[in-house]
Amino acid sequence: MEIESLLNSLDTSGHYGHVLSVEESQVLYNSLLILQNENHFRKIFFWGKIFGCDKDYYIAYGYKQDALHGRIYYYGMDCNTWGLLPRPTPNGIQLTPLASTKFIGDPSLVIDILIEKDETSIPGKRKQPQVKQLKEEDRLSSTVHLIMNQVSLVPRGAWFKRPDGVIIDNISFEGLSTLDAREIKSFLHARIPTQKINTNLLTRDDYNYATDFLDPLDFDIPEGCWVIQITPAEDMVILKSLYWPGFIFYHYLRTPKHGFIYLGHGKKSMDLTFMLCPFFTSNT
Known about the structure:
This protein is of the alpha+beta class. The chain has one domain. Helix content is 20%, strand content 25%. A hairpin with a 5-residue loop joins strand 8 and strand 9 (167-169). The radius of gyration is 20 Å and the shape is globular. This is Radial spoke head protein 9 homolog.
């Protein structure tokens, strides 16, 4: 979420049951303003908070020109001091989903990851289980990368792709209507597109390459992995990811204001596919 929304976290993240305290909001707002000025960011965002056993991790990011490709991430543990979050490594991205323990709050901590011999997510053949080590700082970076790649969102039309390929905020975006907000295809993944252009083109009659260059959510599987809620006043729509409990996206209808925040333990719900499937019983 943008730093201006930090002081109103009760209206956004409060729908999920987690809010930032007044002290956290004020300190984050001031420290992120300083971070933005020091790095000359066009915009800076508070990404969220990953809970740890001893200390929590606060994540923020900003960009100077490109809203998608120019993101630079930072992390801190006291809402005031920020350090550069390293880029995720291929090894960290592979091992992070296998980590079963919670975050501790020590970036220098090294944990052991058990890889079973029949594990399919790790390439290579193994005759016996292996143990690999993963630094918590690398795990944190990989977790942020996975969440951003899988569930970060923008409303349709919020971003504009210039002819030179730079992605910027669409100044003519006036927000979604209540009717459009009820459709899952009105929201797009804020990541590098993985679908072919023809695939996205065939899904819309009013396709516009300058605004519809991202992947829509209606391709996500399984169906039902997103929950859409509209407030009783019909002034805000909220999307929750069932894959990543703690992620919440909000958009004030008929306004360009939108954002997302993650407040959770950094663990993906791997059992979602079985939870959504109906339980069939056979009569014998």
